[in-house]
Structure formats: C-alpha cells, structure tokens
Description:
Histidine-containing Protein, Chain: A, SH3 type barrels, alpha+beta, globular, five-stranded antiparallel β-sheet, 7 helices, 34% strand, 4 domains, single chain
Amino acid sequence: MKTNRILLALSIVLFAATSLAQTGIEKVIDDVRKTYAPDKRQAILDINYKQTEGALFLSGSTSEQAAHDAIISRLDELGVAYEDNIVIMPSDQWGMVNMSVAHVRSKAGHDEEMSTELVLGSPVRILERLDNGWSRIQCPDGYIGYMINGSMTKKTEAEMEKWRKSSRMIVTSLTQIYAYKDADSRSCRDVVTDLVNGCIVEGPLQLVGTRSQVLLPDGRKAWVDNDDIADFSQWASQPFSSRQILDMAYSMMGAPYLWGGTSTKMLDCSGLAKVSYFSNGIILMRDASQQATTGTRIEAANWRSCQAGDLLFFGNAKTKRVTHVAIYDENGFYVHSSGKVRHNSVDSKSDEYLSTPFLHAVRIAGNEGTRGITRVESHPWYFNIDK
C-alpha cells in the first residue's frame, strides 16, 4: 500500500509538472503569435508540440522567421530542453501572375471561396507547393491564400532581382485593353491577352508608331498602345492624389460586385478601395476590417471633417464589427461597391442616404509608410530597396 501511495504521489507530481510545462509553452507560443502573427490572414504560425519526460518536441510551420527565432530564444531563456522540427516557409521562392486577373482562394480548390485577386505582373511569395497543382502564396499586401500554379510563372531570386531593376511599364488605362501579336494588328484573332489597370509588363523592348512591344511574365511578347501604359518607376513615384483615386473609383461605376474581386472587371467593397488606391501607387490591406485599423481615425460624428479619398467604414452598430468600406468624395457623398459600384451619402438628410450604420472613417493621405499603407516605390518586392 505504501509503495502504491508513493507511486500515486509521484504520478500526481509528474502530471502537475507536465501540465505546468505545457501551460508555459502555450504562453510562449501565444505571446509570439500576438507579436509576430496576430492576423492569420497575413502570417502563418501553426506550431505543434509534444511534451515527454526528456524533452519538448516542436513541429509545425511558420511563414515568419522572426516568430520561430522568438520561440526558440524564449525556450532557451527558460532552460527548456527541446527538439526543433518547425518548418520555416521559404522567403526566396517567387512567382509572378501571368494572366490579366488571377484568383486567390482560401483553400486549394476551384470550388473554394475566392478571397482575393491579383493582376498580371504581380509578384507573389510561394510559401508552399502542394501536390495537387496549387501553391500557398503570399500577396504583396501580405494576404495569404492559394493559387493554382498555372496562374503564375515561377521565378528564382536572381530573376526577381533582375526584374526589380528592369525597365517596366504599367497599364494605366481605366478600361480593359488588349495586347496584340503585331505592332499594327487590331484583329480579335491577333490578341495575345487582355490587360487591366495595374498590370505590369517589362519593356518597352521596341517602339513602332504608337505601340510598344512588351514582355509578359511567362515570356510571351506582345504589342500595346502607348496611351494605355506608363513607365512603372515614374508611376510608382507619383504624389498622393485624391482626384486620381476617385477618378479610378468612378470609372468603375456600375461594375458588378464580386466577393473577393480586386480588379476593374468585378470587385467587392474593399477591392474597390484597393484598386482605386493602387492606381495612385498605394497598396492597402485586403479586407475592410483590416483597412479600418490603418491611417488616422475620424469618428463618425465628425464626418463633415472628412476629405476626398478618406475611407468610410460601416457595420454593426452594437459590436462595431466592420463589414463594408467606401471612398469619401465630398459633401457627404461616397463611392462604394454594394451590389454594384455606386454613389451614396453618409448624410441622413440626403436622398441617397443609406441606413447601414456608419462606424468611423480613416485618412490614408499623409500616412503612407505606416502599417498597412505602403507605397509601391517602397515595397521590396517591386524594387530593390536598400535596407
């Protein structure tokens, strides 16, 4: 009996010690997640652990090298014995969108939810290549999702370095355009691809008349009208312009709403904000709930102090959960995508007033370079930025 009581006591002590150790490990991982991967839409931190009498076995994966290093550093400080089997997703595997508009989905499959889109020439970080023809990728705005491999061309680190230094052009046309096989052809049978606002190509390779020959990400060559494109470096350095942003938004008036859409073909509410701001060389975060946490906050009651280009956020009046975003114009009017791109007012006295609760606004102007508001010219995926 005495021996049994001793064994029972030892078991209780070991169980308590193990539970305490697990609690400590969970806290380490949770603290690191709050610092380095607070939003699973932007960063991956899927860490598993198994506690044994001899050591702690770590597994799983993360997209953030700093998050991994922080976990290991903290365990070292605590004097915890561990075996590190955490997979750090690559930071030097690249792809480039090779069609006018490519879908990014929440899971790997054509029947899965479309969470966002990328236009031709957009660089993506390949986090993981799957066996089913899909890859887990990260977009320039940080958003993570899945893209079918056929929608992008794989690039090496050296190829990306060269691309960032190359002469490039960006489509600035407000409407869809076409790239042709020849310098003088306009036949629908001579179309190489369609292109939309924001598509990036290399070139010009040569100039003939009013057209430039350009290089597409997958190696195809095509001819585009000079009036529809601009030098990428000059475009990226343009100053903030609320007029440019609103002109882009108004040019899509009537375009149908598409959940996950972020191109001039079809788009959702935050997609409209992204496309409009990108035309001015500014990358916003993907979702309305993310965009709502950036910039300088303006309370709903102070909407009369809003300026053209400010973002207005709508949602649940009780929980303050953001579900919709619009771009402010003037005199209470705003442009947004709800059913279709249209014009409404935040002024309750206006005939165009909508009753969806207005929560707050944010000002992007003057906040370029802060969290979630990135100028293309400062983004290291587009240019070789000295660090």
